[in-house]
Amino acid sequence: MSEDIFPNESPLLRKRVSQLMTRSPVTCRPQEPVSRVAFLMAQNSISSVIVVDDGGRPVGMATEKDLVHKVLAIASHQVEDLAIELVMDNRLVYIRENDFYNQALLKMVKHQVKHLVVVDGEKLAGILTIRDLIKTRSAGSLWVADKIETANNLEELARIGQEVGSFLNALVAERATAPELFEIITELHDRLTCRVIEFCLDRMLEEGHGGPPVEYCFINMGSAGRKEQTLRTDQDNAIIYADCSPDKGRYFQLLGGMVVEELVRAGFDWCRGGTMASNPQWCRSLSQWKNAVEEWAHRADPGDTRALSELLDFRGIHGSLDLSRRLWDHVFAVFQKPVRATHYLAEELQARVPLNIFGGFATEKAGPRKNEINLKAICRHITSCVRLYAVNNGIAQTSTLDRLDGIREKGILPAEDVEFVKNSFEFLMMLRIRENLKKVSQGREADNYINPYRLSRFEQSLIKNAFSAITRLQKLTGSRFKDY
Length: 484
Hints:
CATH class of the largest domain: Alpha Beta
Radius of gyration: 25 Å
Helix content: 40-55%
CATH topology of the largest domain: Beta Polymerase, domain 2
Distance between the termini: 36 Å
CATH superfamily of the largest domain: Beta Polymerase, domain 2
Number of strands: 13
Strand order of the largest sheet: 1-7-6-5
CATH architecture of the largest domain: 2-Layer Sandwich
Largest sheet: 4 strands, mixed
Structural class: alpha/beta
Number of helices: 19
Shape: globular
């Protein structure tokens, strides 16, 4: 779908690993001595050797770093005779020849590695290194990820946070699809947030508050929880902590306030509605969260409905992820029974797409948004409907696209309807990203509004086609939940 939005750009991310990797890399057997491996590195001017077994299957990797640090750490006068298997790293990250560049990029970012072992079945086919990727702009994410991990203090992280979005243009220019953009940017945002939390935990110790008194989980919500945040927006986060006394719970309120402040410095704005871990309403024990879910689900006044909508995209990113899973289990149990919230949430979804009775766009009539439509509000029709299906059917994924996959796999909606909605959502999100990036480059606010009549007729037809998918989804949702 992104090809329709960015028709003139180089398709680098569509290249296969086989087009980029090094074939026939230097290898050795597990029993070979360290001295032999060091000689192979020097002879071939390389910094790593793949260790393979007798069947040609990769079992480890030896790098210059392994030889220097691990060998020297072994107190023996015969270290040169050590078998390489004693110092190699056996935590290999694999990729297949037919995988795409973007998958390799994401794996390097996610696993913090500079080498990927390319396999054909179980056998070694080649190696893909960071050097193979840094020839392109898209590899900027690798450098940002490394900077995040090696930052020495919160001040450095704040500066790095401003860089996270700097290569989004490059990824878009390489015709990355919406799911690819979501994955890479989410990984970097998650990593940045986790590092901020780690530094704040250190500061809590320095200020005499001690370490966390009980287990906790920091969760993201909203677009970050759905893994759909590209340009940094406001924060939507919270903390779940294990049941404990109120004085221990106050530790997490202090921590939440500190983390939120530092995320603001890193470029994530305050949430105007206060949906942040610094707010006691969004920093609770597991039992308190469970009680809140039941109250919001059964009372279902407008405030409760908004709070529940915000919570139901939550995703644990730091701490004890088991607490996040246990809260989700409770959410699913609550929504297995008819609850008032389901009815109210379904009613909220019936706002119509901006088309007039003549099939034209129903744009804003006056003010600064005159002749424009709100793409964020339009996408929300899809995310809200899909969220409701997910929580009522025990679908644990939080991203809209993953939830749609779950809906199709469970047979909840016809496969053709799911595919129609997925394609429409990807198109609208890519259009939204493109228009927001354009506004940022012009020094304007990325406000999610567009004037549809400034688009080509083809793109206008694609938008109207997406509106048809939304209307269809809303009808199915209203019919499914009308009796709740």
